[in-house]
């Protein structure tokens, strides 16, 4: 829904209710879009945040690749005496 700023002044309460209900409300000035009214997303509680972190952790574990240990990853740069190769 597109509404000019001058029209929105008189119907702000109704526009806010529509945005809360999920409608896209765009305010325009001289035909150009300038503002979009959207409802504020409710932040998840402690259980929701914990579930999100567990989901991210499980995703990371599934994507992890086996490779050389970080302590030995640069050994090819040095010879047996520890000098640069």
What do these coordinates show?
It is a single chain. The protein is α+β, with helices and mostly antiparallel strands and 85 residues long. Helices cover 36% and strands 16% of the residues. The protein contains three helices and three strands; from the N terminus they run E-H-H-E-E-H. The chain has a three-stranded mixed β-sheet. The termini are far apart.
Read across the widest sheet, the strand sequence of neighbours is: 1-2-3
Shape: elongated
CATH fold field value of one domain = YefM-like fold
- Which architecture name of one domain does CATH use? 3-Layer(aba) Sandwich
Using the coordinates above, name the CATH class of one domain.
Answer: Alpha Beta
Give the DSSP E fraction (strand runs of 2 or more residues).
Answer: 15-25%
Kindly name the structural category: alpha+beta
Uncertain ranges: none
Q: Could you give the order of the helices and strands?
A: EHHEEH
Helix coverage percent: 25-40%
The biggest beta sheet reads: 3 strands, mixed
CA radius of gyration is 28 Å
Q: In total, how many beta strands?
A: 3
Distance between the termini: 67 Å
Total helical elements: 3
Protein name: Antitoxin
Function: Antitoxin component of a type II toxin-antitoxin (TA) system.
InterPro entries: Antitoxin_Phd/YefM, YefM-like_sf
Organism: Rhizobium lusitanum
